[in-house]
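Structure (tokenized):
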């Protein structure tokens, strides 16, 4: 359950805006970004593309110190816009934060281990919304299913969270359930039928 590591990046404040300047920025190996929040005027930046890639490739909730000109600001990677086909990073939104504040972020769930033989996991949630200190956001939340038997359900309230981190979801919401393989197959078939009925209803409308 590793915490996000604070990093640093140096950018150049942009003076031109629009599709043309953004395209030229990317052709030069940079990524356009905007830094906003805490009542500061939005700052438009060009950030080094490879450095951005390394920062976000394993952690979408990275916290970093952004240096530009004579200024610097602690920021959270709030959103990443990617090319729909190539998946290249096109733009990054950075939310200005303070080291002593808590922020709301989605943290991925990582399943560890295997349930007993003859069973299979039905995972309902793949990420959880949490409120965490800006400088110690967990990169993931582990759910240990090693040796669990049929019928066991792990809910949000059962998650083991780092100190200072709290979930923003209903504690009764299911994360993962242990079922027999046959039950999972039946459930998948029922879901497929329900989706087919819904699609037919939409077409009829």
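Design, position by position:
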């Amino acid at each position: 359950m590793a915490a996000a590591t604070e990093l640093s990046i140096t950018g150049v404040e942009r003076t031109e805006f629009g599709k043309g300047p953004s395209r030229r920025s990317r052709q030069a190996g940079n990524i356009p970004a905007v830094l906003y929040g805490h009542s500061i005027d939005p700052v438009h930046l060009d950030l080094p593309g490879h450095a951005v890639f390394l920062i976000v490739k394993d952690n979408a909730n990275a916290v970093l110190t952004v240096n530009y000109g004579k200024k610097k600001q602690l920021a959270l990677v709030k959103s990443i816009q990617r090319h729909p086909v190539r998946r290249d990073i096109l733009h990054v939104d950075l939310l200005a934060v303070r080291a002593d504040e808590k922020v709301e972020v989605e943290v991925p769930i990582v399943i560890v281990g295997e349930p007993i033989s003859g069973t299979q996991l039905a995972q309902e949630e793949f990420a959880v919304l949490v409120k965490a200190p800006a400088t110690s956001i967990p990169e993931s939340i582990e759910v240990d299913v090693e040796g669990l038997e049929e019928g066991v359900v792990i809910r949000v309230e059962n998650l083991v969270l780092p100190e200072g981190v709290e979930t923003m979801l209903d504690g009764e919401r299911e994360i993962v359930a242990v079922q027999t393989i046959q039950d999972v197959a039946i459930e998948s078939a029922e879901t497929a039928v329900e989706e087919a009925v819904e699609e037919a209803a939409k077409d009829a409308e």
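Reviewer-requested clarification: Residues 11 and 47 are 5 Å apart (CA to CA). Confidence is low (pLDDT under 50) at residues 1-5.
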